[in-house]
Write a structure and sequence with these properties.
Blueprint: E1 5-8, E2 11-16, H1 19-34, E3 47-50, H2 77-89, E4 96-101, H3 110-118, E5 125-130, H4 142-145, E6 156-158, H5 164-168, H6 173-186, H7 191-195, H8 201-241, H9 249-272, H10 286-302, H11 306-309, H12 312-323, H13 335-347, H14 350-370, H15 375-378, H16 380-414, H17 421-434, H18 461-465, H19 493-501, H20 510-534, H21 542-594, H22 597-603, H23 608-638
Parallel strand pairs: 4-5, 5-6
Antiparallel strand pairs: 1-2, 1-3
Helix pairs in contact: 8-23, 9-21, 10-14, 12-13, 12-21, 13-21, 14-16, 14-21, 16-21, 17-20, 17-21
Length: 639
């Protein structure tokens, strides 16, 4: 067999034993990559030379610097070449061979300038002087070789390459090296260097091998750590890809159960709180659902304001239309108008309630996708089936929750409960401020006054002067009282009779009643201004004005009650019909839809990309482990 040959990466398993053919293949490949325009390419031509006469080296032959485009070369050829050279020389692990013709001014050498730009201290730059045989007579490069002109820590080495005529005459390398040594030995300036074998191509090869080995030893700890890090990363990636799927049905069933269990655990943990999908920058999972319930949903409810959605003209017209041809008594409550207007407001709460359901549903869909185990990335069909089953299950829960939220709105519209305790209490207090005259400064009557007299008949002047008679007081049978439950008199029959004959007191102490009256009187003035602006040009008598103010007060009171009810009931309905149902049903639905014998072989088909990625990962691990072994050998040589 031939002891010397070359192999190209683009021609694997093809050995070139004739070096003339190697040169021809380089020219042909260059033309295939860059065309015939003498351009350059960042894609290297990789050539491996096997020979017992060469040291272990990896050389990168970079193009020489060009100032002016030649022929069909692009206008920016200089920039392209400079960027290509810097791409390799900037690597701190590389040794730079700065090649400069000896018959030119070394101070203007482009290679020296680029080397100094990336290696200012000259720690990894070795100078190579060529064309020593072409220098003018009487001159030599001994000063440059001795480092007296430009100083480099690795020094300069002089060589004589084959001339263009030698290449055309196919002069072999062995003959070229002999002629080179003969020239240096016979030259008076270089004879001493030649006798000590410190000049020439052979010395350059040995010197480069020695420098490379020393450089590897110096960089050994960092290189070893980097390779070990790459090995760990590649092994981790290989582990995440898993083993190639088998054809055994039992293995398929075990893997499916494992994937479903992991998916369900991730889904439930993300909702209930845990380490899965923990984020430090935003709310995720159950925390976002809680934020929707406790912050965002109440804000949307509170954004619906009665005075913005019910203009005064609409309230006035509704009251008049509901009365028809009848006239109301002074101080009576327009019940029909109140119910019509408050129902209109309640209907507007449907939008924030529906938004709350939609927002939680979107979050659940995001959770279902983010909780997918890594194994699903390998099996595209299984991942699609997972998403289909999860999406259908969540859609059913969403429809149930949506239906329940709509029912909550209909519940509130079905029955306007004016006997609600909060509504009655507010009504009693507001009634004390909306009917005049009210003498807030009159002192309370003492118990030792004249005998109590019977109350005036309903509708009399005295009855109209008592603000409590708007909402309660000593009314006829069937009317509700404004006196709070549980505050009955503790006396006997005589005291009960006296209480029945005496005027009914407000449900609070006199001082508290006066404070509330003053505050509500201020609110009444603000509402009057709002009414005047909304009913500009409309003449209202005192009775109509009082009715409008009264309806507004009752609407606000009852609307707040409904809003509080929905703020509490909507999140509960969503949790029960959608969130908790999803947690309870996800595993059952996945098992019912996917744990089928006829689907096992279909869903456990790996993507071709995953198979190729696993193959490349294994090759990378193998190559890195070999490199680590080489570094360990170098370290043992160093020791």
């Amino acid at each position: 067999e031939c002891e010397e040959w070359g192999e190209f990466l683009h021609c694997p398993k093809k050995k070139f034993t004739v070096f003339k053919d190697i040169r021809k293949e380089i020219e042909d490949e260059t033309e295939r990559i860059t065309g015939k325009k003498q351009a350059i390419s960042h894609n290297p031509i990789r050539l491996r030379i096997t020979s017992p006469h060469v040291p272990d080296l990896t050389l990168v032959d970079l193009p020489g610097m060009t100032k002016v485009p030649v022929g069909d070369q692009p206008a920016d050829i200089e920039t392209q070449i400079r960027d290509l050279v810097l791409k390799y020389t900037a690597n701190p692990n590389s040794i730079i061979l700065s090649v400069t013709p000896a018959n030119s001014d070394i101070a203007t050498s482009d290679s020296i300038q680029i080397a100094r730009a990336v290696d200012p201290k000259g720690d990894r730059t070795i100078g190579v002087l060529t064309k020593l045989d072409l220098m003018d007579k009487g001159t030599n490069a001994l000063g440059m070789l001795q480092g007296k002109v430009v100083q480099l820590k690795l020094g300069f080495i002089g060589v004589i390459n084959r001339s263009q005529k030698d290449i055309a005459d196919e002069k072999d390398l062995e003959s070229s090296r002999k002629d080179e040594l003969k020239y240096f030995a016979s030259h008076p300036a270089y004879a001493q260097l030649a006798s000590s074998h410190h000049i020439g191509t052979v010395f350059l090869a040995r010197r480069l091998n020695s420098i490379l080995l020393s450089h590897i030893k110096a960089r050994l700890p960092a290189l070893r750590n980097r390779i070990m890090s790459l090995v760990a990363t590649s092994r981790k990636e290989l582990q995440s890809l898993g083993e190639a799927p088998s054809d055994d049905a039992d293995d398929h069933r075990k893997m499916l159960l494992s994937v479903i269990t992991q998916y369900v655990d991730n889904f439930c943990t993300t909702i209930d709180g845990g380490r899965h999908l923990t984020s430090f920058s935003e709310l995720r999972g159950g925390a976002r659902i809680s934020h929707t319930f406790n912050q965002l949903f109440p804000q949307r409810l509170n954004a619906i304001l009665p005075h913005e959605n019910l203009p005064p003209s609409e309230i006035h017209m509704t009251i008049r239309n509901t009365k028809g041809a009848r006239t109301s008594l002074y101080g009576s409550v327009p019940q029909d108008a109140f119910e019509m207007l408050v129902k209109k407001l309640i209907k507007q709460l449907r939008e924030p309630a529906s938004w709350c359901v939609d927002t939680v549903f979107d979050e659940l869909r995001m959770i279902s996708e983010e909780c997918e185990p890594k194994e699903l990335q390998r099996f595209e069909t299984l991942r699609d089936r997972f998403r289909e089953v999860s999406a259908e299950m969540l859609s059913r829960c969403f429809r149930d929750a949506k239906k329940m939220i709509e029912s909550l709105i209909l519940f509130e519209l079905a029955y306007i409960n004016t006997n609600h305790p909060d509504f009655c209490d507010i009504g009693a207090v507001l009634g004390a401020t909306f009917v005049e005259p009210l003498n807030l400064q009159a002192p309370p009557q003492k118990a030792q006054g004249p005998p109590a007299q019977a109350p005036p008949p309903a509708g009399s002047a005295g009855d109209q002067g008592n603000p409590l008679n708007w909402f309660g007081g000593k009314e006829s049978k069937g009317a509700r009282s404004a006196t709070p439950v549980g505050k009955q008199s503790k006396g006997g029959a005589g005291e009960a009779a006296a209480s029945a004959a005496a005027p009914v007191e407000p449900p609070k102490s006199r001082s508290e009643q006066m404070q509330l009256a003053r505050r509500l009187q201020h609110d009444r003035e603000a509402r009057r201004q709002w009414l005047q602006e909304g009913l500009a040009g409309v003449q209202l008598d005192p009775r109509e004005e009082g009715e409008i103010e009264l309806v507004i007060t009752l609407i606000v009171s009852y609307f707040d009650i409904v809003r509080k009810n929905l703020r509490d009931s909507v999140p509960k309905a969503i949790m029960h019909f959608m969130v908790n149902q999803a947690k309870d049903k996800v595993q059952v639905e996945l098992l019912r839809s996917l744990y089928k014998e006829d689907l096992m072989g279909e869903v456990f088909v790996e993507r071709p990309e995953t198979t190729e990625q696993r193959k490349q990962c294994r090759q990378m691990v193998s190559a890195l482990e070999k490199a680590l072994g080489v570094l360990n050998e170098v370290r043992s040589m160093q020791e």
